[in-house]
Amino acid sequence: MTETNPLKDRTAIVTGASSGIGRAIALTLGTAGAHVFLAGRTREPMDATRKRIEEAGGAASVVVTDLRDPGQVRALVDEAVRETGRLDVMVNNAGLSYPAKIVDGDPEEWRAMLETNLLALLVGCQAAVRAMRDCKAEGHIVNISSIAAQRQDPGIYGATKHAVNAISATLRTELEEDSIRVVNVMPGAIATNFARNFDPAVLKGIIAMSGVEVEVKQGERLPDEVFEKLAGPMKQMLGDPQDVADAVLFSVTQPINVNIADISVRPPKHLDLG
């Protein structure tokens, strides 16, 4: 790594790093010089990203963890600090959506969204603040929200993202006297496996535009090839995960006296998959 890497000698954690936006953020921060800890449930894709970071001259570690367990979230932060001696960037990216209507919804699916989208994020914020204070970092906490939070009636998933916006704003106020900044990033429709729990009929219509023949099973991940092929025909309606990663890198490389509060990242046209 060279002196041109803005995150040299810094440590970053990215949750939900096995695919999509999280993977893009981890790779971007890693190639910018940070030692990145990739956290998620699936080791193989995170190992592949770690290898790419290392091939670029960076450093990365993989932590397989259940982010719905507060103890495991705290252990993730502890491991990063134990291995590198510090924490500078915490990206709370892990998110989950079940788009059923309230009258048809499964409370266990609601619980999964609340524990993944809110509890894990809250515990991650708390643990990160304590670690950053201990090492006297000029740190950044990045919470990945959604433009769904800008709607009045966004469903349960969107309600969790309304809460993320409120948590980010509240924490930002609490940390005004600290050298820690809170960045709230709201992506629009991005070409990722985020929508894997959506109605297969909706997904089939989008996948057909890629020209890739693949069986659609609700809850299962689609191959990366699908999203690569969609990049052309759906460019106006589906953003690239790299767009979000670039916004994160911009935010965390600003001087500590600059407070980047909220960023919306969306494609030119609106696509409502909810």
What does this entry look like structurally?
β5, α5 (155-174) and β6 (180-187) form a beta-alpha-beta unit. The termini are far apart. The protein has helices spanning 20-31, 43-55, 70-84, 107-134, 155-174, 200-208, 224-230, 241-252, and strands at residues 11-15, 35-40, 59-64, 89-92, 139-144, 180-187, 262-265. The protein is an alpha/beta fold. A 7-stranded parallel β-sheet has the order 3-2-1-4-5-6-7, sandwiched between helices. The protein folds into 2 domains: 11-190 and 239-264, Rossmann fold (3-Layer(aba) Sandwich), CATH 3.40.50.720; 191-238, no CATH class. α1 runs parallel beside α2, α1 (20-31) crosses α8 and α4 (107-134) packs parallel to α5.
By CATH, the topology of the largest domain is Rossmann fold
Low-confidence stretches: none
Mean pLDDT: 89
CATH architecture of the largest domain: 3-Layer(aba) Sandwich
User: What is the percent of helical residues?
Assistant: 40-55%
Structural class: alpha/beta
State the end-to-end distance: 42 Å
Number of strands: 7
| Total of domains | 2
* Percent of residues in beta strands: 5-15%
- The shape, in one word, is globular
Please write the CATH class name of the largest domain.
Alpha Beta
Q: What's the main sheet like?
A: 7 strands, parallel
The helix-strand sequence is EHEHEHEHEHEHHHE
